[in-house]
Design a protein that fits this description.
rod-shaped, six-stranded mixed beta sheet, about 425 residues, alpha/beta, about 5% strand
Length: about 425
């Protein structure tokens, strides 16, 4: 690995975090702003910029780095230089634009950026303007006094025009020069519109904070809704970037998407397709499977039907674990649901017993017991006991029954085990 590649590789985790920060922070900005008419762009005028219905702009430059923001920091001056270019090129109106530099580290009170942090009560744009101008002028002076290359050196580094266009050979103005050369009134107005936001929440903190900002979502569902929302939001951002950031991301589509996702969790639960369409057949071995729920099924069904019993068990078991891990269900809620299933089974068994005039106290042929067991199973399958109102998939209910059967809380074959469970 070359030194250059090694440096790029080393920077990759921080760069990846920076992109994640941009995604999450853009969502955070829209959610914490009560205005509903906002439009947001990414990688257009700045890392993020937001416009309201009156045309007012707010530009955000994000720095998800651990280094401090000192007076000569490239993070500070590259940001200021970019804003100066936007003003110089006429891309923005400084009278209607606010500028935000967001860093996750603390700005020390010895640095000029401290005068631009509003939360410390030290916000003073006059001091900040004069100090920034002093720093810029000093850099320009140092550059002016820097010894020039010898004529021989200059001759060696010059290239014929055929190797590059004349405009490419022009030396660009530095960030310091761009700032110092602004008209005094413009430069003063720029500094008055700058705010440095330090100690900003990082990616991990935002991931933990944003769910509670989804005020229209029931608290138990906030984490799950945020997880789905973030996936959708990142997809919208990629589409936005692939379209050269021309069309904005309006807050209205965000609001509608939150409502749409929330509806899925309101009296409903998301189904994982991996569990819904899983192919577990390869791992099923009916002959050598001695789990209790399989033994109960074998007493009343042939192997082909037992296979589907095992499939329902696997699918329901894994789906329930997924819901629990994502905090979509609580163990108490699941306990109540299982009690409801058990009550439903109890009533079903007693109804079938009455209809068939079966009694545990009399001797009954095995085939008759098997027929009664099938009647109990089929009648149970016809029940409609949903874990949530909008979860209509039958395998969730029947798979849950097989989980209960494995715990000896229900069974299908009318014998002493069933009598004990009923009592």
């Amino acid at each position: 690995m070359t030194k250059q590649n090694k440096n790029i590789s080393a920077a990759s985790p921080e760069s990846a975090l920076g992109f994640s920060f941009q995604d999450v922070y853009s969502l955070y900005l829209l959610l914490k702003d009560e205005r509903s008419d906002l439009e947001l762009w990414i990688e257009s005028l700045d890392d993020i910029h937001i416009k309201d219905k009156n045309g007012n702009l707010t530009l955000y430059q994000l720095k998800h780095k651990s280094n401090n923001l000192n007076d000569k920091s490239s993070d500070l001056w590259n940001t200021i230089g970019n804003w100066c270019r936007l003003i110089k090129d006429g891309n923005i109106s400084i009278e209607t634009t606010s500028f935000k530099l967001v860093v996750i580290t603390e700005v020390l009170n010895t640095q000029v950026a401290y005068s631009l942090c509003k939360k410390y009560g030290s916000y003073n744009t006059i001091i900040a303007h004069d100090e920034l101008l002093k720093i810029a002028n000093k850099d320009i002076e140092n550059k002016r006094n820097k010894p020039k290359k010898s004529e021989k050196q200059e001759k060696n580094i010059q290239h014929p025009d055929l190797f590059g266009l004349p405009e490419e050979q022009e030396i660009k103005e530095t960030d310091y020069e761009l700032f110092a050369k602004l008209h005094y009134n413009t430069r003063e107005l720029l500094v008055k519109s700058i705010e440095v936001i330090d100690n900003a929440p990082n990616v991990t903190t935002l991931d933990a904070r944003i769910p509670s900002m989804l005020y229209t979502v029931y608290p138990d569902n906030q984490k799950a809704v945020y997880s789905d929302l973030m996936g959708w939001w990142q997809m919208k951002i990629r589409e936005h970037l692939s379209n050269k950031s021309v069309s904005p991301l309006p807050k209205t589509i965000l609001t509608l998407k939150i409502a749409e996702i929330n509806e899925k969790y309101d009296n409903g639960l998301p189904l994982d397709n991996d569990f819904k369409h899983a192919e577990y057949e390869k791992s099923i071995d009916i002959q050598n499977d001695n789990r209790r729920f399989v033994i109960y099924a074998k007493k009343i069904m042939d192997d082909d039907d037992v296979k589907y019993v095992v499939l329902d068990y696997y699918r329901a078991y894994n789906q329930r674990i997924s819901w629990l891990n994502r905090n979509l269900l609580s163990t108490d809620y699941l306990k109540d649901y299982e009690q409801e299933l058990q009550d439903g089974w109890n009533r079903t068994v007693r109804r079938v017993k009455r209809k068939s005039k079966f009694s545990f106290n009399t001797k009954t042929e095995k085939q008759t017991k098997k027929d009664i067991g099938i009647d109990i199973y089929d009648a149970t399958e016809e029940l409609d006991i949903r874990i949530k109102e909008k979860v209509t998939e039958k395998y969730i209910m029947m798979g849950s029954y097989h989980i209960l059967a494995d715990e000896d809380r229900v069974c299908w074959y009318p014998d002493d085990k069933m009598k004990k469970i009923l009592n």
